[in-house]
Amino acid sequence: MKYDHLIKAIEDGAEEKIREITDSKDREIREILERAESESAQLRKDLLAQINQRVEIERNKEIYSAREQAKDQLARARNGAFLSVFQVSDEQLSSLRSSPSYGAFFKAVMTEITGSLDSEKIRLHIDPKDEALCRQLIKDTGGEFEIVTDLTTKGGLTGSTPDGKVVIRNTIEDRLARAKERMKVVVFSGLYGDQDVR
């Protein structure tokens, strides 16, 4: 029986040791699982933050791209509207030569040229279609001008000094081009309601 008691004590001691080891291992496993869960939660949180950051960056890129596309489309539309305004003007001015007021227009632009060129002899470059009108106006004014029929224009003329160093362009096309540059701000303002026109 002594041995039984000793065996029982050894078994009890072994069971106690097994319980301690099991409890210790269970605690370690719980701690490892808790740490793993905590690290996993932090990792998920970090990954979610990175994904959100990437999504925000992509969203901002898309918004910027959309704004730039909208600005580009608006600029093209405005430019198209601007050009159409002058296209209509150009079409209307194409028939100016056949208008009863063309003679007065031609005389006015010729007077601008002759008044601006301070030269004894002025060379007038005209469209052959305006030669008779130009000769009549020269005859009426009594001036002495050289006529050169070397232009193709919808109307108007160009004047120069005999050496060609000073040239004044006063054709419909030249005047329309100058007006287009000066009127760009005014036309855009009228089309899009900007009150601050200078």
Describe this structure in words.
This protein is of the alpha+beta class. It has 2 domains: 1-94; 99-192, ATP synthase, E subunit, C-terminal (hypothetical protein PF0899 fold, 2-Layer Sandwich), CATH 3.30.2320.30. The protein has helices at residues 2-94, 102-116, 131-141, 172-192; strands at residues 122-126, 145-148, 156-160, 167-171. It has a 4-stranded mixed beta sheet with strand order 2-1-3-4. Helix 1 packs across helix 4 (172-192). The longest helix is centred in the N-terminal third of the chain and has 93 residues, at 2-94. It is rod-shaped and about 155 Å long.
Low-confidence stretches: none
* Strand portion: 5-15%
Query: Strands across the major sheet, in which order?
Result: 2-1-3-4
SSE sequence, one letter per element:
HHEHEEEH
Number of strands: 4
Q: Look at the helices and sheets and give the structural class.
A: alpha+beta
What share of residues is helical? over 70%
What's the number of helices? 4
The residue-averaged pLDDT reads 83
Radius of gyration: 46 Å
Number of domain modules: 2
Shape: rod-shaped
Main sheet? 4 strands, mixed
Note the gap between the termini. Answer: 120 Å
Oligomer: single chain
Sum this structure up briefly.
The chain has helices spanning 2-94, 102-116, 131-141, 172-192; strands at residues 122-126, 145-148, 156-160, 167-171.
Task: Supply database-style keywords.
198 residues; hypothetical protein PF0899 fold; 10% strand; alpha+beta; 2 domains
Helices and strands in order:
Layout: H1 2-94, H2 102-116, E1 122-126, H3 131-141, E2 145-148, E3 156-160, E4 167-171, H4 172-192
Helix pairs in contact: 1-4
